[in-house]
Design a protein that fits this description.
Subcellular location: Membrane
Main location: membrane
Oligomer: single chain
Structural class: alpha+beta
Bound molecules: 2-acetamido-2-deoxy-beta-D-glucopyranose
Pfam families: At5g54830, DM13, DOMON
InterPro entries: At5g54830-like, B561A, Cyt_b561/ferric_Rdtase_TM, DM13_domain, DOH_DOMON, DOMON_domain
Number of domains: 5
Mean pLDDT: 82
Number of strands: 49
Low-confidence stretches: 1-28, 151-157, 864-909
Keywords: Electron transport, Membrane, Signal, Transmembrane, Transmembrane helix, Transport
């Protein structure tokens, strides 16, 4: 009897839907015009845009449609059914309400319901049905009403395909929809559709996780009772740094990160492709059998769909899925470290406590996911925090991940980030450098959509900008905005003419800029550095402007041989700051120090890490020899600071995986007292030219000219004079050009630099020379005693010139030292030595000339020589020579003035 009853009940239950369906279709609203029967029974699935909308849609008659298994996170009171002529931005925004039914404030969980159209709307008017929030013009999800050709599918029919993992098998319907769903944890779900005919299983992994997290799922070794991870065949999925989804086939041989052991064998959690010979491309393709189908990141939820074969051709690293049997599957969530130059594959980090295993028979129908996956932190947009000093660069670019679709094709970018959330502080003026093109006028408004607000009959308050605020890269428009006490907590940056190009501005009270007296941006504008200096201590804050797992700043020109402060958030969400002394390039070279830090804070907000601490300027360890005692901050001298960011840090067991993924390319020197910073740059080529020119002038031309004047007087004609004059003028010209080059490159002359001081002295001495050469008094008539004035002049001229060269050489040395200090150039030392050698050669040459001259002098003095230095012309006789004894020409003592030929006897003999 009980049996009969239940059979009856079952059959009744079976009949009820049919009955209901026939009632609703036949007993439709009387005035429903039956014009368009072609769309009846049209069925499709919702395209997910926002609020995790899922479900299927069926037109049941001319004035109603049915929605089944509908999921949606609540969207506010103004969410309605919307009809449009197309799914483009323009067509959606010019759509209209099609039903009185509202998608009111509840969250929909696998709901089934029927919606009737407004009486003045027919299916002919509608090409797209959307779940629409009117106030924000948001499309939560939509279906496109177009009949898919039911005709025999063009060859090859999908049912014939035997999936091997080399190309994606076509899926019917939306990639977000599957036959089954299983809850793995409260933040992680597995969805799947199995098609044994095609030898394929479609797997959808859905996790309310951070965008930098991976989601892993796979099959454990079926011959193992425990230790499910060892030997498991898993897929690791996630998003690249650019936001593109990926999936990779992994195999686990050891509870460790993927490494190559001493025998060259790969072990750990590694991609299948790493186990095979890296040269064998065919082999690599054979083992790489997971195919990405689709992936997105919406409402703080990651979703990735991929396919893998049930029976894999890769027998080494993949397991066959016995789809009719219970099999053990394992899963994990955790941070992933992006590939770098050493390791070209993604490295899943330790999953903390987020892992588990589960028995799954994929052919069984399961749906225990109730409603959409929800998370508190829905906004994934990048965060840009305004800074008083650096203007925010406003540009426009393609809308790829606009937070509120649909959006125009072009949207606003700030600091190269697409429509980020902008945070400003009350009382801190914000500067925008607007270069988004002349057709994009930028403004700050109270209206969430912006753009031609009056045409929508809305009121708005404009806080800054307007029709004039437009510019291009070559001629940016600078706009200043000072949010004040009366600015609401949320306003919007938008384009004045086009809607939905910008996004939210968060206005907050006092942040780091308020708390610290000084701030600078470190290299690449990726890290902000804040500080306040007091008598004995310094308070420091650093904020990474990019999502990361840890942030490190170090005092030094590079990470190696510096003291680094690392701020990170542990698995329990607690922030830490620790100091290390780094003396090498690997994880073993990080030595934690016992530095005493106070007011330590570290927090992560949307992946942006901020750390704060206060320390003594001088650790003051009373003569202790500990390494941290050397970590002294000298406020008066510039402090070089570098930074690094990476995926994960821990207070112990640091490994290679904790190495940074991004780092500053150059140190920035911060003047703690003046609150300014200057980047340490590579030696600019122009400065190298400056150095070379100065060497040419002061190392060759000037000394050469002097040597010519001193040792070539015996050469016939006024050759020496010409050489002297030409080389001195050339030297002077080159010097001026060199100064111009350097000043133009650096845009100023920092007169507080030693090099610049010496340089100026050199130039002054150098410039005196042509002036005093011009003022040269006439020497006495030929054969007469030279005038005293002339002798004095010659002394001045010669000693001025010589000292100019000596000071010039010092200037070159100071320049090289500056080069070494400032640019950390390893070549500087070599160059200095080369210069020293050059000078030694010069000095030896001079000594040799002096020596041979003296010898000649002696010879001539004793009547052995037969020549005169100087040809008797008044310009050329050197009154300063050592051979003038008490103003009397030695030559004259030796010989009467006679002209003689060029004789370089000393060199010949
Ligand atoms: C719609 O489907 C129902 C049941 O499957 C069928 O009875 C009806 O004829 C179909 N209507 C049209 C217009 O195809
Ligand atoms: C959008 O609407 C315009 C007319 O307003 C039409 O020309 C265009 O084809 C439509 N686009 C789509 C994708 O339906
Ligand atoms: C929301 O809709 C449900 C059915 O869809 C209805 O029962 C409920 O009364 C509605 N609530 C409001 C506040 O409109
Ligand atoms: C909607 O219908 C499906 C079957 O089509 C059923 O599994 C599900 O429980 C229904 N949803 C609700 C909320 O009753
Ligand atoms: C349908 O009628 C409503 C008023 O009942 C009106 O607001 C709406 O604009 C009309 N829609 C169309 C497409 O005419
Ligand atoms: C598909 O290929 C796999 C392995 O290559 C094989 O084991 C399986 O029998 C094939 N399935 C069909 C339906 O041909
Ligand atoms: C596996 O194949 C996919 C698609 O063919 C490719 O994008 C991916 O880079 C491959 N993975 C490896 C590790 O070679
Ligand atoms: C398969 O696993 C489920 C639980 O996941 C269990 O209820 C069921 O009994 C298992 N079936 C077999 C044949 O082991």
């Amino acid at each position: 009897m009980a049996n009969a009853q239940s059979i009856l009940l079952i059959s009744l239950g079976f009949l009820i839907p049919l009955f209901e369906f026939s009632v609703s279709s036949s007993d439709s609203i009387p005035d429903c015009p039956k014009t368009n029967t072609s769309v009846i029974n049209f069925t499709s699935q919702f395209v997910m845009c926002q609020h995790q909308v899922r479900g299927s849609f069926t037109i049941i008659n001319d004035c109603a449609f049915r929605v089944k298994d509908f999921d949606m996170i609540q969207g506010g009171s103004d969410v309605c059914w919307w009809g449009a002529a197309g799914d483009s931005y323009e067509n959606l925004t010019s759509g209209f309400v099609i039903s009185d039914d509202k998608l009111n404030t509840t969250t929909y969980k696998n709901d089934n319901f029927t919606v009737s159209l407004l009486s003045n709307v027919t299916w002919d008017d509608i090409k797209v049905v959307s779940v629409w929030k009117t106030s924000l013009e948001s499309d939560f999800g939509h279906v496109v009403l177009e009949e898919k050709p039911e005709a025999p599918a063009p060859a090859p029919a999908p049912s014939d395909v035997n999936f091997t993992g080399s190309s994606v098998v076509r899926i019917d319907g939306e990639p977000t929809m599957f036959d089954n769903c299983k809850v793995l944890s409260d933040t992680y779900r597995l969805r799947w559709t199995v098609r044994p005919k095609n030898n394929v299983i479609d797997i959808g992994l859905e996790g309310a996780v951070d965008v930098r997290d991976y989601m892993a799922f796979g099959w454990a070794d079926p011959f193992k009772e425990n230790d499910h991870m060892l030997g498991a065949d898993v897929a690791v999925t996630g998003f690249t740094e650019k936001g593109a989804p990926f999936v990779d086939d992994y195999h686990i041989t050891k509870y460790s990160e993927c490494t190559t052991n001493k025998n060259g064998k790969v072990e750990g959690v590694c991609p299948d492709t790493l186990y095979v010979d890296s040269d064998d491309a065919h082999d690599r393709d054979l083992v790489n059998n997971t195919m990405l189908v689709y992936g997105h990141r919406k409402d703080g939820v990651s979703f990735i769909r991929y396919q893998r074969p049930l029976k894999s051709i890769d027998k080494r690293y993949d397991w066959n899925i016995e789809y009719k049997k219970n099999m053990t599957c394992i899963w994990a969530l955790g941070l992933i470290k992006p590939p770098d130059s050493i390791r070209p594959h993604y490295l899943p980090e330790n999953h903390g406590k987020r892992y588990g295993h589960v028995q799954i028979n994929v052919s069984e129908n399961v749906n225990d996911c109730v409603g959409p996956l929800d998370t508190k932190n829905k906004q994934d947009q990048d965060l840009v925090i305004a800074n008083e000093k650096e203007p925010l660069v406003v540009t426009s670019g393609p809308g790829l991940h606009y937070p509120n679709p649909p959006n125009p094709s072009k949207v606003l970018y700030i600091n190269k980030k697409e429509s980020p959330l902008l945070r400003v502080e009350r009382g801190v003026p914000v500067k925008f450098s607007i270069q988004a093109g002349h057709n994009v006028a930028f403004y700050i408004t109270s209206d969430p959509l912006g753009g031609n607000v009056t045409s929508r009959k809305q009121d708005e308050t404009v806080y800054a900008g307007g029709p004039e605020a437009h510019g291009v890269k070559s001629k940016p428009k600078v706009l200043e905005w000072a949010p004040n006490r009366n600015t609401p907590d949320q306003v919007y940056y938008q384009s004045f003419y086009t809607q939905k190009m910008g996004w939210k501005v968060e206005v907050v009270d006092g942040g780091l800029t308020d708390m610290y007296n000084n701030s600078v941006l470190l290299d690449d504008q990726q890290v902000s550095f804040f500080w306040t200096i007091s008598k004995k201590s310094i308070s420091i804050a650093a904020r990474g402007e990019k999502k990361s797992g840890y942030l490190a700043i170090a005092f030094g020109s590079k990470m190696v041989n510096s003291f680094a402060y690392v701020g990170w958030i542990d698995v329990n969400g607690k922030g830490h700051v620790k100091t290390y002394w780094i003396d090498g390039m690997n994880a073993q070279s990080l030595h934690p120090t016992d530095e005493h830090l106070t007011y330590v804070r570290c927090k992560s907000e949307r992946g942006v890490i901020t750390m704060e601490f206060t320390r003594d300027l001088d650790p003051n360890c009373n003569g202790d020899k500990k390494i941290e005692c050397k970590n002294i901050v000298e406020p008066t001298s510039p402090l070089p600071v570098v930074w690094a960011m990476g995926a994960k840090w821990s207070s112990d067991h640091l490994t290679q995986s904790n190495m940074h993924s991004v780092t500053s390319s150059k140190p920035v020197r911060i003047s703690l007292i003046y609150g300014s910073a200057e980047a340490e740059e590579d030696l600019k080529p122009v400065l190298a030219v400056h150095g070379f020119m100065m060497f040419l002038a002061w190392g060759i031309f000037f000394p050469g000219g002097i040597l010519a004047a001193r040792y070539m007087k015996h050469v016939n004609g006024d050759v020496w004079f010409k050489i002297h004059v030409y080389s001195q003028w050339s030297g002077l010209t080159i010097t001026f050009l060199g100064i111009l080059f350097a000043a133009a490159e650096l845009r100023s002359l920092h007169t507080d630099l030693l090099h610049v001081k010496i340089g100026i002295l050199t130039v002054i001495l150098g410039c005196i020379q042509p002036v005093n050469a011009y003022l040269r008094p006439k020497k006495g008539d030929n054969g007469e005693e030279p005038l005293l004035r002339r002798i004095v002049w010659e002394y001045i001229h010669a000693y001025c010139g010589r000292s100019a060269v000596i000071v010039g050489i010092f200037a070159i040395f100071s320049g090289m030292k500056h080069l070494g200090d400032r640019y950390d150039d390893e070549n500087a030392r070599g160059l200095i030595w080369a210069l020293v050698v050059w000078i030694l050669v010069g000095v030896l040459t001079v000594l040799y000339f002096e020596y041979s001259q003296r010898r000649h002098l002696r010879q001539r003095f004793f009547g052995l020589g037969n020549w005169v230095l100087g040809d008797g012309e008044d310009e050329e006789t050197d009154l300063l020579r050592a051979d003038r004894i008490h103003g009397v020409h030695v030559e004259k003592l030796a010989l009467p003035s006679e002209r003689s030929e060029i004789q370089l006897e000393p060199l010949r003999s």
